[in-house]
Amino acid sequence: PSKMAKGAEKTGGIARTDATGRVEMIPELLAWSSSLPHDRTFVREDILGSAAHVTMLRKVGLLEAGDAQKLRASLLAMYDAAAAGTLVLEDGEEDVHMAIEGLLTRDLGDIGKRLHTARSRNDQVALDLRLHVRDQAARTLADVATLATELADRASREKDVVLPAYTHRQRAQPVSAAFLICAWSMQLLRAADVVAQAVTRANESPLGSGACSGTSLPIDRSVVAHLLSFSAVTANALDTIGDRDFVLDWTWAGARVLLALSRLSTDVIDFTTSEFGYLRIGDAVAAGSSMMPQKKNPDIFELVRAKASRGVGNVMSMLTLVRGLPTGYNRDFQDDRQAVLDTGPLVRGATGAVRAAIAHLTFDRERCLASVSDGSTQATDIAEALVRKGMPFREAYKATGQLVHLARERNVDLASIGLEAAKSINSAFDEAVLAVIDPRIAVAAKKSAGGTAPERVEEQIAWVRAAATELGYKASSVPTLDDLRRAVEA
Ligand code: ARG
Asked: Whose CA is nearest to atom 5 of ligand 1?
C-alpha cells in the first residue's frame, strides 16, 4: 500500500464506524479531499483548542485527573514541536484534527480515545479558524498601526512641500505633502478599524457546539472560552458550526487594508514618473529593466496593487463559498482554507513592503512647487478672496474665470497677469486678492476643519498618531498563541 493508504490505516479510521463502511476511503479521494496540507498552518491553534478542551473535560468530571494530565502534557509537547517546526503530520488523514488525535492515541493508547468527548470536528475547525483569524488580525492591526505612526512622522517632516491635489487626475488645488500623507493615513486607519472589528467578531468560542446541536454531556463551555481568552461563547450551536462570517469579515478587512495601500501605491507610481516628477525613488527600492538601461521602476508599489486584487479575490471566494449553503455544517466550508490562510501573510506582506519602500521616496520640492506656481490651481483661492470682500460667489467665480481666460489669451501664467489686467475685468481685484496666487499662501489660508492650513494638518497628524496608538493597544490586548499555551498549561 502507498504511504497515504498506510496513514489512513493507522488513524484514518477514527472518523469511520461500521455504519460508514468497512473499508477505507479510496486513497486518491482521501488525498484529494483532505484539508491537512492547508491545516498544517494552524496546527498550533488546533492543539491549543484540544488542550483547553481537556482541562474543561477534567473540570466537569468527564476525565480523570491522571488522564487529563497525560493528554495535556502530550498535546503541549506537540505544540512545542510544532512551534519548533519538528512536528510531523503524515499525509493520509482527512484533516489536522484527525492527525493530532491519531498521534495522541499512538502516544497514549486508550486514553487518547477520550479526547473527542462532547466535541465534533465541526466546532473544532470553527475554533481553530477563530483562533487563527484573531491572531492574524491582531498582528495585522499592529503592523498597520506601525505604518500609520510612521506616516504621521513622515507627514510632520513634509509640511513645507507643496504640490497639487488632483480631481479627475487633473491638477486641482495646492496642498502640502503632509496633508496628502494624512489623507493616505485616514483611509488606512478606516481599514484598520475594520480589522479591529474582525478581531472582535472572531472572538467568541464555538467549542462545545458539537456537530450541530450541543451535547447531553455536562460540559462547561465557558472554561474553554476563558482559557483561550474569548470574550464569550457563541449563542446557537447550529448557527455556530455553519458560520464563516468571521472569515468573510477577515478577508474583507484585509482587502480594505490592501485597497488603501493600492491607492497610495498608484499615487506613488504616478508621482515617480517623469510626467509628474514629484517623488524620487531610492535605489534600494527601485527595480531596473533587463533591457532598458535607463529604467528605475516602482515595481514594489505595482506589486502592492496586485496583492490588493488577490485580497479582493479572497473576499469574492468567501462570498461565493457561503452563498446558498443550507443551514448547518457543509464540507464546502473546508474550501475557505485558501482565502483565510492567504489573507494574513498577504496583507502583512504588503503593509511591510509599503513601510520599507516609502522610507526611500523623496519629494522633489522644486518640481512639486513648480507644478502649482503658474497660479491656475489657485483660481478658487482668488474667487474666495473676492467673496471675502463681499462679492457673491457666482460673481467672483465668473470674474476669476474671465481672468483665467484673459491670461490664456495673452499667453501668460495667471500668476503673472498683473493687477492692471485684473482691474480691467473687475475693480474688486486688488493686491490682497491676487496675493493668494502664491500656493503657500493658498495652502495656509484653508483653515476650515479638515483643510490644508498648517494648524489643521497638525490636528490631522495628531489624530493619525492617536488612532494608531489606540490600534496598537487593541492589537496587544490579543494574546499570542504562546500566551495561550501558557494559560492552558497553568
Ligand atoms: N476538514 C474539515 C474542515 O476543514 C473538518 C470538519 C469536518 N467535518 C466533517 N463532519 N466532515 O472543514
From this structure: 121
